[in-house]
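Recall the central idea of this unit: under ordinary conditions, the amino acid sequence of a chain determines the structure it adopts. In this exercise we apply that idea directly, starting from the sequence alone.
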Amino acid sequence: MAPVVNAGYLSVSFFILLSGFVLAYNYAGRARAGKLDLVRFLKARWTRLYPIYLLSLLLGWQMISTEYTEHRHWMFWLGMGLTPLLLQGWVPEIATFWNTPAWTMSAEAFYYLIFPWVAGWRKPYSKGRMIFRLGLVWALALIPGSLYVLYSPDGIAQPDRFSYGPWLQALKFTPLPHLMSFVFGVMLANLDEAIPRDGRIRLWLGVGGFLSVYGVLLLGLRVPYAMIHDGLLIPLFGSIVLGLAGDNLLSRFFRLGPLVFVGESSYCLYLLHFNLWNWLHASGLLVALGLSRFDPWISYAILVALGLLALHLVEKPAQKVLRQWLGA
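Accordingly, the structure predicted from this sequence is:
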């Protein structure tokens, strides 16, 4: 499990690709027909995104003092202004301001804005052309990481997930280097429509995708971190998505009730876990209750439980109220 745990950051790349795929699955047909109501679409996305995002900032209030000491005065106030507006990701130095995982929502907000345009592109008429386009997008996705490896602008001999440098910060936490992951997901929905749901090929794609990702992770630092962080695994993530979108043993396993129940809270869990983890351990609660000997597993269980509570007590009720109010 160590290679998977140590590469948890890859779930962000998968999430970005998956978000493009899901949006295209639901809206691409209307976008190509010119029938997608852009205003209503953006309202629906905002009501889905913002309630938990705002909650994550409220829970991270203790981070504000830390941010104040770590940034220049004017950069701190820029972060305070841009972060609630989902714009902090465009400034590398403050991309992880206030709540580290929230940079992803800054990127997603941008992707939502351009989605109607991307989804409206003419659909290729053959599987071969679809795969060719996907290959072209993958090649474009590899450019940022390849340039970083080639020129090493931060002068880091062997970057890893703990490394820091201004160029690495921009590569990891800003919207544009991850854009092609989203576009790949949107285009993947075209290929998904062309493959039978019950086709055996989907099972092989899904299983092969999972095993191949694990195989790459076993290589560790032999694979350049700047490459694997986003673009390198895009085709394997796409294979997994196609496998899970079919009707086969793999997809039926992931449709099991407990997995679906927990999976629904994945957005809450992702966005809240950083600040909740910090609070849980800074508060001394686990030590006071005599549960620290069960860490980190007890912490994981508590975070999942809190994510589920946030889903049912905050995200869903807030989304319902906001959509009624905005007519989304």
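The chain has a mean pLDDT of 92.
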